[in-house]
């Protein structure tokens, strides 16, 4: 790994079921816990929702970047979720979000998390970058995009995951 690179696992998922921000974040939490079995879906969802309450992570152009410190989430993870339909996220441009780039890691990795969030946010307005994230068929191309930002992929998730019918959680369970 080159100097200045930050190593993260990168995973790709699709979510055709989310119809609102809260459900989308619960579904992201479910996927994160599939990749980090020691983490609790309830705790991950709570962290993501708490972060969202501080201010929307919607950046515009259909992109949101939820991020949180989550215990038992090592190594750090970037989960790219493509939504079947855009959901309201209070983005500055008023557009719905169809692409979630979620960044999670443990508290010991806070500096690395901030670096990745910052680097991704700088590219949030680049239509070519966003188009590549939306259209890339495999994780290899997405890993290349992130490598160009100085984010190294330590482990690749080999295939796209889809949310199965039994994986949909009731977002009201947290309330």
Provide structural commentary.
The protein has 175 residues and is α/β, with parallel strands linked by helices. The protein has one domain: Mannitol-specific EII, Chain A, CATH 3.40.930. Helix content is 35%, strand content 26%. The protein contains five helices and eight strands, in the order βααβββββαααββ. Strands 1, 2, 3, 4, 5, 6, 7 and 8 form an eight-stranded mixed beta sheet that branches. Strand 2 and strand 3 form a beta hairpin. Helix 1 packs across helix 2. The chain is globular. The termini are far apart. The C terminus is likely disordered.
Give the tags:
single chain, 175 residues, alpha/beta, Mannitol-specific EII, Chain A, eight-stranded mixed beta sheet, 8 strands, disordered C terminus
Quick structural summary:
This protein has 175 residues and is an alpha/beta fold.
Count of separate DSSP helical elements: 5
Rg is 15 Å
Fraction of helical residues: 25-40%
Per CATH, the architecture is 3-Layer(aba) Sandwich
Which outline best applies?
globular
Strand content: 25-35%
- Tell me the distance between the termini: 43 Å
**Structural classification:** alpha/beta
Residue windows where pLDDT falls under 50 for at least 5 positions: 155-175
Largest sheet entry: 8 strands, mixed
CATH class: Alpha Beta
Q: Please tell me the total number of domains.
A: 1
Total count of strands: 8
CATH superfamily: Mannitol-specific EII, Chain A
